[in-house]
Structures are given as structure tokens and as C-alpha cells.
Amino acid sequence: MAKPLRKDAQRNRDLLVAAARELFAERGLDVPLEEIARRAGVSIGTLYNRFPARADLIGAVFADRVAATRALAEQALAMPGAWDGLVHFLEGVCAMQAADLGYNALASGRGPYAAADDADLAEGYALMRRIVARAQESGELRPDVTLEDMVFVIWGHARTVEATATIAPRLWRRHLALLLDGLRTPEPSPLPEPSLTPEQARRAMSPQSPCRPDDAASPV
Fold this sequence. Notes:
mainly alpha; Arc Repressor Mutant, subunit A; Tetracycline Repressor, domain 2; 2 domains; 12 helices; TetR family transcriptional regulator
């Protein structure tokens, strides 16, 4: 069990997380750590004492997103309409990305990150798979769609947010609506390529281990 921080140390940590959250949201994940320390009103040494690596700070800033995503998934599964639940979940995740350039980059697999507990992530993915399966069982989501296909929704949305955030900040909703129409039945066209496997999706989303072209074409 982690030892509780002294009051002054906890205060400095809270100030750093708050400053980083603001700057990451405004400008993305590449904000200089020195600037974060200045906004928090502490020394760069204090920042490194609390967060030895950028990934540690990013992990602390975005830890609440795991809980928020799980809450969205639970809301989606509680909705009477399976398709409405899927739309609610995707709109909620995309809205979080649109509101925060740092989270937008993180969600699309860019930037170092000290990951949340593996059990929490696994439970979140299980909820998402239920959302997809439920929409397919209702006949509203095309049957060949997998959870891993949702990676493309996140990637496409991330680029839309980056390109239009200061020009038309709500344009992402149009982009998402077009993507959702491609996922919905009836009578979808056959897809020309198979879905990513869960392992391929994990590798593709990891900035540390990008797929080579031959990797993407080969089963794992």
C-alpha cells in the first residue's frame, strides 16, 4: 500500500496535475514540463520528484478517463435501444476527445502513458464488446463489425478534431454520423479486408511498437 503524502507534497501533486490537465487540454501532450511546473507554481525539481517520467504525469492526469468510459458503457447497456446505446457510447467518447486535445492524442495511440490497472481496462473492453454484440443481436449493427473496427472511428475522429477544433469545433459530429451510417444495417456492402485481431489493434494503438506493413497484413 502506498504511503500517504505529506500535506505539502499532496498539494504540489494536485497543483501539477491540475496545471498539466489544463495545458494538455489546450495544446496536446507535448507541452514542455517546465511550463507545467511554472503554471503550477512549483519548481521543475518538484515535478520530477512527483512524476519521474512524462508518462507518469500523463497517467495521473487521465486516470479518470477509464472511469468515465466505463460509466458511458454502463449507460449504453442500460438504454432500451441497442443501437441508441452504441451511438451514446461512441458520441460520449468522441465528445471527450473533442473537449481535450491531450486526451484526443492519447485515445488515438500517441504519447507516453502509464496505463491504468489492467483489470480495469479488461473490464472496460468487456463492456464495449457487449455493446457491439447487443447492437448486432438487434439486427441494427452490421454483423461483420468487431470491437477492433472501432479503432478506425477513434483515429478518424482524432484527426478531424485536430484539423477543425479552432475552425468548426462541432464538425466532428457530422463526421461521426457519416461513420455510423457505414456501420448500420440493412444491406451493407461486403468488407474487402478482415478486421484487426485484438493483438493487432493493441500493437497499432501503441506508439512504442508501430506495425510494419507486413505485420498489418499477417495474422498474429
